[in-house]
Specification:
The structure holds two protein chains of two kinds.
Chain A (H helix, E strand, L loop, with lengths): L2 H28 L14 H11 L10 H19 L15 H9 L1 H12 L3 H24 L1 H7 L4 H6 L6 H4 L1 H14 L11 H4 L9 H26 L15 H22 L5 H30 L2
Helix pairs in contact in A: 1-12, 1-13, 2-12, 3-4, 3-5, 3-12, 5-6, 6-10, 6-14, 7-14, 10-12, 10-14, 12-13
Chain B lengths: L1 H12 L3 E7 L4 H6 L7 E3 L8 E5 L4 H13 L5 E5 L3 H5 L16 E3 L8 H13 L34 E5 L11 E7 L2 E8 L7 H7 L2 H11 L4 H16 L5 H29 L3 H16 L7 E2 L2 E2 L16 H14 L1 H7 L7 H7 L3 H9 L4 H24 L18 E9 L2 E9 L7 E5 L1 H7 L1 H5 L4 H9 L5 H5 L1
Parallel strand pairs in B: 1-2, 1-3, 3-4, 4-5
Antiparallel strand pairs in B: 6-7, 7-8, 9-10, 11-12, 12-13
Helix pairs in contact in B: 6-7, 7-8, 8-9, 9-10, 9-15, 10-11, 11-15, 13-14, 14-15
Classes of the chains: A mainly alpha, B alpha/beta.
């Protein structure tokens, strides 16, 4: 194994961990237990949580499907780490391929495998239901997500995330494709198992669902992967609709491009967390119905409107 | 070096505690308030995710297995904290309750009172104590053999397609009712085909204990019947005693009792809404309900003031001039209006757990469940709104009563002699419905017969028919919408 590969891998994991940490802090700030409880110790609490879980050992359920149960958190982390590769933080810090966007959407898929394996591997009824939910979850979001993300690809005539960001130098896509951003955000809420679509890991229904039997370091890995996943989809949202590393006109010079990118990413993370707090969890059947009967038709409308606007505006 | 590092990790880990709670029957208000008391105290979804087990009493022999099993799953270092009234202290030696200290390494015990009146101070004490917790004792926890259950599956002829049925066991520690109850759901995928209910985990045998203890001790037992509504239970008992003694409480006392009942119903409904919102993972609603409930609890009139012969103002903290903070009823009314227009809330609760008016009357339901079936659609949505609008009404009426209290004595002279031979019945409308007590006296120093008609027991019997055919999330919402108090249902 060459050293360059190892460096890249470690670096990716490090910045993913940092991103997940940021999400965990925001989570405590956006969703405080009570009004005015946004204390500074929210900055330390994710570390506290991690320390606690690392100390707690690696408990196994009574009769697990051992290989699946043990490997699931690793699959989750590996998936996220691979997907992380796609995000261009600045024109220089980017892996540019002609199909990066496609690569990213496809790589969200295997995360479902991690959750389904986790639920199945725990060998319990909650886990079983959760793993079935996770499997149908994939069907619910993948098509919708694919269509929601086509708008920017059409406008920039490319599936390269770098090209998509470059195409927004003068005008961000969100300005003339606002519905596209909304659809993207809704479908990624599915994709990252956040409220109101967190049915496979639902706390009050299935006692944590697929994660119910996990504890210790494995739970920490799973939680970190879930947070990092939210961070990543927000980053890709910032690239596809909010201009990527381009700052808002007029003030763009104030911060370097990657700082703008980080700022937009966390703004989207905050928005997604806030939405989750303001909506009750959907029933699993309602979620599927919502995805196929509301979001997907809207995505078609968005696609047609984008096409017409491209012809008319010729941006 | 490693000690130093370990010390730092300990201090870091103590910045946040994740607790998993087991509610033996009286934890409704405490557990609803706790997430809002200290932001370092966070509820966990599963015992595996928690490092602290919080047990709210009463704990019966039957529930002990579940407590021990849950304790074993808490992440090490396991901390165990108990809140509530210990069995032998107040219920008497004969009560079928256990002291958890005899079975598990309890780090400490908090409070004697987990009812709405004292919940804030109990929660604060708990938060403070947990933050500074350092105690770690190691006790070998005995292995337990799990209770065996048998649920018949459907034959292949009964099933539409050849998928296998699964029996999902929920409880006895669960999120849908206050206190322990076990639901056995026969599931076809996400769909509940049939449901069975196993109850009795919170049975303290209140009726038997009441007959074995002196009349005065019965006051405590009546208040403990439904730990979520001590005023209702105590008032029913006191009224029955007054009938037996042929004593008439002064009008001022009647009015004070009436307002105390109103306030108790209001607080109980709001705590229910907070729990229901938690089940739906609706954080914003849960927080609103929680803060309203805390505001109502601050003004609540305590159960101890309800005494035979009238009202004992000295037993209430802060005297009788407490009451509803101004504007609270309007806030609740506002919330009810928002909830009525809330389409996402309707999406999750409309058509869930529908109970027809005819059926509701047939089985003898009462309170908000009956009202929702008679005046509205009889689903979870209707029950939620019926309760919330009831809260606004209760608060207004309590305010009116307290503003126009008649002058005069609060109590008539009362002799502690046992009541003469006879029987009496009294009826009180509590948060969950009509609570009826039949009290018999043979002229002795203890009651000859005590019989409670308990609304939660009636509602519990409806669970199988309400959940059949629903998907799992809807089934859980349907059960939660009944506002079951298992301590009251089990007696």
């Amino acid at each position: 194994m060459n050293a360059g590969f190892l460096d890249t891998a470690l670096l990716t994991l490090a910045w993913l961990a940092a991103g997940a940490y940021g999400v965990a802090v925001l989570e405590r700030w956006i969703v405080p237990a009570r009004a005015g409880a946004r204390g500074v110790h929210a900055l330390l609490q994710p570390l506290s949580s991690a320390a606690r879980l690392l100390r707690a050992g690696n408990p196994l359920p009574a009769r697990p499907d051992s290989a699946l149960f043990r490997s699931a958190p690793l699959v989750a982390v590996a998936t996220v780490a691979l997907a992380a590769w796609a995000v261009p933080w600045s024109p220089t810090a980017a892996v540019d391929t002609p199909i990066t966007l496609f690569f990213f959407v496809i790589l969200l898929g295997p995360f479902v495998v991690a959750l389904a394996n986790a639920g199945w591997g725990a060998n319990g009824k909650y886990g079983l239901l959760a793993s079935m939910r996770a499997a149908s979850h994939l069907v619910a979001y993948e098509v919708v997500l694919g269509f929601a993300i086509l708008g920017p690809a059409m406008a920039s005539e490319s599936l390269s995330l770098v090209r998509i960001a470059q195409a927004q130098e003068r005008l961000w896509f969100v300005v003339w494709q606002p519905l596209g951003l909304v659809l993207y955000l809704v479908s990624v809420l599915f994709a990252v198992y956040r409220r109101p679509f967190d049915t496979p890991i639902a706390g009050s229904e299935l006692a944590g669902g697929a994660l119910a039997e996990y504890g210790g370091a494995r739970l920490l890995l799973f939680r970190a992967a879930l947070s990092a996943l939210l961070f990543l989809v927000a980053a890709v949202g910032a690239v596809t609709y909010l201009g990527g590393w381009h700052g808002p006109p007029g003030v763009a010079g104030l911060l370097p491009g990657s700082a703008w990118m980080l700022l937009k990413t966390y703004a989207l993370v905050a928005l997604l967390l806030w939405v989750g707090r303001r909506t009750p969890r959907f029933g699993h059947d309602q979620m599927l119905r919502f995805s196929w009967k509301v979001v997907l038709p809207l995505a078609f409308v968005n696609l047609a409107a984008t096409g017409i606007l491209i012809l008319v505006l010729d941006p | 070096m490693s000690d130093l590092l370990g010390g730092w990790i300990d201090r870091l880990a103590a910045l946040e505690r994740h607790y998993f709670a087991i509610d033996g029957g009286s934890g409704a208000a405490l557990l609803a308030v706790l997430p809002g008391v200290d932001d370092r105290l966070r509820p966990a979804d599963s015992p595996h995710h928690a490092d602290l087990l919080l047990v709210v009493e009463p704990i019966t022999e039957r529930l002990l297995d579940a407590v021990i099993e849950t304790y074993r799953h808490i992440a090490p270092p396991r901390h165990l904290v108990v809140a509530g009234v210990c069995g032998t202290d107040r219920y008497g030696m004969e009560a079928p309750l256990i002291r958890l200290e005899d079975h598990l390494p309890v780090a400490f015990r908090v409070g004697g009172n987990t009812t709405a009146e004292f919940v804030r101070s109990t929660a604060d004490a708990l938060a403070l104590a947990i933050r500074d917790m350092r105690i770690r004792r190691r006790i070998e926890v005995p292995e337990r053999t799990p209770e065996e259950i048998f649920v018949p599956l459907r034959s292949s002829a009964e099933r539409e397609i050849a998928t296998e049925d699964v029996v999902l066991s929920i409880g006895p520690v669960q999120t849908v009712a206050v206190g322990p109850v076990r639901l056995l759901l026969l599931m076809d995928g996400e769909q509940v085909v049939r449901a069975e209910v196993r109850s009795g985990y919170a049975a303290r045998e209140i009726e038997r204990l009441s007959c074995e203890r002196p009349w005065s001790k019965g006051l405590f037992l009546a208040a403990a019947l439904d730990p979520l509504a001590p005023v209702a239970g105590r008032t029913a008992y006191v009224q029955a005693m007054e009938v037996l003694h042929e004593a008439e409480p002064p009008p001022r006392a009647r009015q004070l009792r009436e307002s105390a009942l109103h306030l108790e119903r209001a607080a109980s409904h709001l705590y229910w809404l907070a729990r229901f919102a938690n089940l739906l993972a609706y954080d914003a609603l849960a927080r609103q309900a929680r803060s309203l409930a805390a505001a109502v609890s601050a003004g609540i009139l305590t159960a101890d003031a309800v005494v035979p012969g009238g009202w004992d103002g000295t037993a209430t903290v802060g005297g009788t001039d407490r009451g509803v903070p101004a504007g609270l009823a309007d806030d609740v009314h506002q919330l009810a209006r928002h909830l009525r227009a809330d389409r996402l809330f309707a999406l999750r609760t409309r058509g869930v757990g529908v109970l027809s008016a005819a059926r509701a009357q047939e089985v003898g339901t009462s309170g908000p469940v009956l009202l929702a079936s008679e005046a509205s659609a009889g689903d979870a949505w209707a029950r939620a709104l019926m309760r919330l609008e009831g809260v606004a009404n209760d608060l207004r009426q309590a305010t009116d009563i307290l503003a126009q209290l008649p002058e005069g004595d609060e109590r008539v002279p009362w002799t502690a002699t046992p009541p003469p031979k006879g029987a009496a019945e009294s009826e009180v409308s509590g948060p969950r419905g009509t609570l009826t007590l039949q009290l018999e006296s043979a002229g002795g120093d203890r009651p000859a017969g005590v019989h409670w008609a308990r609304p939660s027991a009636v509602h519990l019997a409806l669970v199988p028919e309400l959940v059949a055919g629903h998907t799992l999330p809807d089934a859980l919402a349907a059960v939660a919408s009944l506002d079951l108090s298992m301590a009251e249902a089990d007696g």
